[in-house]
Amino acid sequence: MSFSTQTSVGDLLDNETTRAVLEQHLPGIASHPQIGMARGMSLAIVAQFSGGMITDEALAKVDAALKALG
User: Fold this and answer.
1) Domain span holding position 34
2) pTM here?
3) What is the CA radius of gyration of the chain?
């Protein structure tokens, strides 16, 4: 399975490798109090509702790192 910012947050958090990528670029995302509501949405969609917490730059870095996993 290939991963990107279009992958659901739940799938990214449930995979040890992709969870590490998220935590590297978005520290604390896995323990954010509202992360449960985001599990069914893609990371790209969540970024739109993050109030600037997930910047376009961070999203691009996460996307590149996830795609590099294969």
Assistant:
1) 9-68
2) 0.91
3) 11
